[in-house]
Amino acid sequence: MLRRTYLFLVLVRLWFALSPSYLHPDENFQGPEVIAGQIFHYPVRHTWEFTNEHPIRSVFPLWPVYGLPMLLLRWLWIGNGNDGEIPPIAVFWTLRVLMFAISFVLEDWAIHELIPSPRHRRVAVLIVASSYVTWTFQTHTFSNSVETLVVAWCLVLIQRIVENPNRSSFLASAVLGFVAVFGVFNRITFPAFVLIPGLQLLKYYWKNPLSFVILVFAGISTTLFAIALDTAFYTPHSMTWLDLIRRPVLTPLNNFLYNIDPENLAQHGLHPWYQHLLANLPQLIGPAAVLLFTRPQCSIRLYSAISGLVVLSLSKHQEARFLLPTVPLILSSIRLPKRKSALRIWLGSWIVFNLVLGILFGVYHQGGIVPAQVFLSKQPDATQAVWWKTYMPPTWLLNGKNEVLTTRDVMGMKGEILLEELEKIATCDIPADRRSNEYLKEKNGTYLVAPLSAAWLDPYLPNKGLDGLRFREVWRYRQHLNLDDMDFGDDGVWNTLTRVIGRRGLGIWRVTKSCPK
Known about the structure:
It is found in: Endoplasmic reticulum membrane. By secondary structure, the chain is of the alpha/beta class. The protein contains 25 helices and six strands.
């Protein structure tokens, strides 16, 4: 029964991995888009983290996670008789399947390794596998998802070293040195999660100095390689040894200095110190939060999660996904209720919580953005695309179309200003007798991408007159929810939910205007 349940949950995880939901722009712009531009030479957009005078994102962890699979895909693609032009959407789905695979293998394997009791291990694996965080965030290309795996395997390596003091730990120490440096260059929050578990190593390395030397050597070698890779990436010309010595790019240090400046954090939103504890953590683990405080099982996993939670709470900018590494650690450190009635209630609430949030974040959350980009990439006349009230779209999915297509993200722009901007770039309308599909033969075309819940547009969409803008709907995708379009203050709770949920979907309109003959 437990095996069948686990296999079913693995299939659920795969199903969500193959759903085009879009949880946050960072899942593209902080990883796949950067490497896709390097390997496939897609025209891409580098965000401020990479274009800043002191860049804060390292490309070192991006190459093994995304670069190697892309290189393998290109090799297989060409080896099967195709040319070197791989559709970006094929790369997108390949990375999703990859994230599913490494989550399924590495995360679940780490849970098996970290829990000695077979009975508790089976329960813990099922709880982690049934979490919507595992279904959604862990199957998306977030640096936080990678950090979750790195933290878990650092704990595994530490446990292997400590529990076998009489065995040689040379290999484990070398791997730990590499993985720890990889974790720091991936996210500077990584040390917060291994701070307490790492204290166990002090006694061991005091008695085994040679193992410590190997750990340090592996760490320093990996650090030098990572710095060289980052310096080569950010140096506008061919890097020389002099550049590496005089002007090395230290992305973790730049990231740390950026994030300790309150003025920088204010640009991304400031939160109270209890945001993670009272809001973000319950959002991630739901009913498990009750068991965390009533039936915790003390373990090094739990101490790791607590240390990470405490350190991250010191920062004034707190997003829920920053706590992803704590989720499997906490879910594997709780005990289920003993009484059958309490157990049934908890299991029922756990299933409902994860089903609701799994479908919300795994299917509907900004779910139309990726399909919309694929649609726009196939429109021969598309030269202007204005995205309103959505997340920033990943431009690398345009399949080279962005060489001629200008993408404008005007997420929070007021409606009146939006119409003024559209008036400037809208093309002239074609005669009524040629409007079936003749517009695709035009040289230029302006498209507006907006959620169907954007009721402000309603009065302007039916315009058939001679004056003003004309909107022709050419595409829509129903599995799209825009949770950033909530306006409870003006519309009220019920009206807002009716509009956002009842009118869910993303639409694309071709925008034209009347022009003098």
